[in-house]
Amino acid sequence: MSPSDASSSPEAPSSSPEYADVAPEAMVQVGFVFRAHGMQGELKVNPEHTDDPALFEEMSTVYLGRSPHAVTRHEVASVRYQQTKRGTTVILGLADVESRSDAEAVTKLKVFADEEDLDLAEDEIFIHDLVGLAVVTEEGERLGTVANYMEMPAQDVFLVHRPDGEEAMIPAVEDFIVDIDLDGGRVVVRPIEGLLD
To answer: 15-116 and 127-189 share one CATH topology?
Structure first.
């Protein structure tokens, strides 16, 4: 391929990408491209905001970008997995990312999916829907706001921003989490002494 062919190739990421016409509020971040993998354009993706990397197998299309307001659309060509000390890495192949240079051009971008394309079970919740919920006790005392939901080696935790500016971690287990009420905008918790110190 000549230099002129390479610069005009539709497969090669360019400085002026053709952004997808999608609503930013419909975009759900499902991963982060942290490096290229091999020479055939595969991407190493860290799954984010999901505890089920197999979710990638359900998606025929993903969107890449630094924010949900400017993303490019890509057809999924292949999905496989690599187990590491930090957990599962998704090895993602995209139909229009065919070389290592193509892959390197999209590293450090976030991976989004259209919320409508994600088939959640009845009891599953998007992590981004948890952020911003009020955290209250069973007696109605407000303890703070959910700042993040973190997947930890031992157990997942809610990161709670307290009214005094401090942060606390509440394990995401039934002993402490009484109810997640999305309609009511709150997480009801049962804290024990010292949990929020």
So the answer is: no
The H or E element that residue 96 is part of is none
By residue count, the chain amounts to 197
Strands (DSSP E) contained in 27-95 are 27-37, 42-47, 61-67, 70-84, 87-94
Q: Which fold has domain 15-116?
A: Elongation Factor Tu (Ef-tu); domain 3 (2.40.30)
Whole-number Å distance between alpha carbons of 127 and 59: 18
- Please state, in angstroms and rounded to a whole number, the distance separating the CA atoms of residues 135 and 186: 6
CA atoms of 197 and 189, how far apart (whole Å): 15
pLDDT tens digits, one per residue of 90-125 = 999 999 999 999 999 999 999 999 988 876 655 567
Give the sheet arrangement for strand 177-181, strand by strand.
Answer: 167-171, 157-161, 142-150, 134-137, 186-189, 177-181
Three-state DSSP state, 193:
coil
Q: Cα separation of 35 and 32, whole Å?
A: 9
3-state secondary structure of 129: helix
pTM value? 0.62
